[in-house]
Structure formats: structure tokens, C-alpha cells
Amino acid sequence: MSDSRFFSIDRPIAFESADSDTALAFRHYDKDREVAGRRMEDHLRFSACYWHSFTWPGGDPFGGETFLRPWMHGDDAMAMARSKADVAFEMFRLLDVPFFTFHDADVAPEGASLAEFNDNLKAITDLFAQKMETARVELLWGTANLFSHRRYMAGAATNPDPDVFAYAVGQVKAALDATHRLGGANYVCWGGREGYETLLNTDMKRELDQLGRFFTMLVDYKHKIGFEGPILIEPKPREPTKHQYDFDAAAVHAFLQKYDLLGEVRVNLEQNHAILAGHSFEHEIRYAFANDLFGSLDVNRGDDLLGWDTDQFAMDVGELKLVFHELLKHGGFTTGGLNFDAKIRRQSIDPDDLLHAHIASMDACAQGLLGAARMLEEGALEGPLAKRYAGWDTAEAQATLAGERTFEEIAERARTLDPQPVSGLQEYLEGILNRY
């Protein structure tokens, strides 16, 4: 490998076959293969994230940097940011992903003031725009980091200090402007520290009202500048705060209802966040579709033996089958996609480990998609589900749901009924899932 090249290859990774022995090749992800009426690439809409791939140094609570990335060390912060962008766009090209995502602080140095940060972000946005003129990659979404700096230790929009609220507004305005300039399909807000550590020093109603005002202003500004994509909230129950206000999709739903934001704001869901909230990934996805909240997905996973957010690459084909079963059943993505909000392990110190991780997860997603498409085509799960609820499709049951029967009328009819329990067939259905 030459001194000027970060990765060991310079040709984009290609699809070969399931039995290929080429290390850097796709075995299942064939982007042009038609699945359920669409190209595989158009179903999956893969996106590589900037932060874990190029900003995380490989540290953990018990040890520091392991990756030793060349753009993380130097005196000229903007020069390092440009160098990082060069490598990022090289990875996007090699993986041939159609999208990428970023936080403002991932791509531009914060500097000594908000004005300097905004200027730095604008300069990097100009650089991205220049690179995107010749690159195949587009922007799935942008966002602002409102949780790492010490000013946000008590939250951003929910902070007890209105000056911190104002600073957050200034930071998000610049990040949304950058996202709009780059043609982003969505804009994401992750709550970060929008929550509390103890109720002893927290006025919950005041903080939620502040958060509602923040999102109302953000939606108004989005329309003012003509940004057409949805605003997305990424639910998470804890980490870094003990309790976060965007605990899960249902909590976000209630928040949006209260502050009249339904239809304007949707959810960006993540597997490990769902697990931390006591749900499965497919539960959160189904809830979002059932309540017209679905926006996009972060496709990563946690570790079943650990109780925190480990951000590992998604490799569980069985789980991914259920994810794509939900997606295909509801028509798939519109503006959203599958964002690899995932980081390689701190011992994976070779640059090519970034490529191996993405390849393996993209292949796992492709396998999940293919299995889900077959299940839907053959009615493997939908058939038994429809049969289980068939009674509600009768004229009498539909009249009940339509409000055409009174409580007393239903009670009178029940006097002649003798309903008998019917098996839920759980193990049978689990067996069906394994066949695919």
C-alpha cells in the first residue's frame, strides 16, 4: 500500500457469488438484483456514517485511542478535517454506498465560538458539495452534536439555562442549512442529554415545554428555507442520561401529539436503542408504521451480554429478516435508509477492517431482505396472521368497530356465545421463520 492510500484497494468492491473466496467482495449484496419489484440497492438504501467510521478513536472507559488515524493528530484542525473528508469519500466510493450521514462536529472543528464553528462547517460543506459533484454518494441526513461539549451536560433544548438553548438553536440552524445545501433527504435530532439524572433538580414539565418549543421552531425554519425532508427523532431510553424524554417510539409519539408535531416529525430507529428500552427492533418498527411515524433506520446491534449501547455492525440474519418483513409489508423506505451507525471493535485496527465490517453487514442485510421477500411472497407469516384475526373481518365485528353497535347490544349478543381458545401457534411460526 502506498503512503498516500489509506485502504489496501483502489477499485470499488463488487458482487461475486455466495461461494466467493475473495476477502473484499460482496457475496449476497447484488445491488442490481430485482427483489419484490425493486433493485436491491433501492430497497436497502445503505448509508455509511461519518462519526464512528472516521471520528471515533477506538477508546473505551478503560483505555484510550487504538486506531491512530493520521487525521486525528496535528496542529491545523481544518487541514485534518479536509484529510478526513478525503478518506471518507474514498471509503464511500470503495463500498459503492448510495448515501452517507454526519454530525456537524464530526466533519468540522468547533473552534473557539459558535461563529467560528459555523464558518468551519460552511467551509467543509463547500468541500463536500465539490466532492459530491463527481461522487456517486448522496446525503441521507445530517445532524448536530448537542451532547458532547460540556455546555450540554444538562441538556440542550431542555437546559435550565436559556443561553444554552439559544446556542443549540444556532448550532442546529447551521447543521440544517448544511444538510439542505447538500440535498439531504432528512434531518435527524438525537436527544443525547435531553433527559435527567435525578428528579431532585429537574422540572420535567418545563423541560418538555422547552423541547416542544424547540421542535416547533425547527419545523417552522425547515419550511421557511424550503427543506423538503422530514425531521427525525432518534429514540433512546438511557445513555448518556439515566432517563431520556425520547425513551422509545411510543414516548416520541406522545410527545409529538402533545406539541402538535404529528406529520412533521418522524422517527429514526435503532436496534440497540430498542433493546435498551425493553423492546425488539421489529416492535419499534411496527409501532412506527402503525402510527405513521416511520422515517429511517440505524442498522447496528448491541451485545446480548452487555447492558449498554455497543454499536456493533448488524450481522444477525434472523433478526434482519423480521426487519425487512416489516419494511416490505409497508412499502419500504421513502426518504429513509439503512444507516450504519456502527463502529468496528477497538482491536480492529487495520484500515481494511472498516471495509470488512461494512461488507459483512451489507451481505447480512441482503440475506435478510431475500428471506423476507420470499416469506411475503408465499404468505408464510401473513397467512396465519390473517387467519388468527379473521373473526374481526365479519360483518358483525366490523359493525362493532364502526360504532354501529351499542355496548348494551353487544352484551346482549354475548349471552348466546361460547368462545373457545385457539392456539397462537408461536413455535410453529418460529419454525417457519427458520425455514427461510
UniProtKB/TrEMBL annotation:
GO molecular function: magnesium ion binding; xylose isomerase activity
Any one GO biological process: D-xylose metabolic process
InterPro entries: Xyl_isomerase-like_sf, Xylose_isom_bac, Xylose_isomerase
EC number: 5.3.1.5
Membrane-crossing residue ranges in chain numbering: none
GO CC annotation: cytoplasm
Active site (catalytic residues): H103, D106
Cofactor note: Binds 2 magnesium ions per subunit.
Cofactor(s) needed: Mg(2+)
Residues annotated for Mg(2+) 1 binding in this entry: E234, E270, D298, D341
Cleavable signal peptide: none
Residues that, per the record, bind Mg(2+) 2: E270, H273, D309, D311
Keywords: Carbohydrate metabolism, Cytoplasm, Isomerase, Magnesium, Metal-binding, Xylose metabolism
Catalysed reactions, semicolon-separated: alpha-D-xylose = alpha-D-xylulofuranose
Subunit structure of this chain's protein: Homotetramer.
Family: Belongs to the xylose isomerase family.
Protein's recorded name: Xylose isomerase
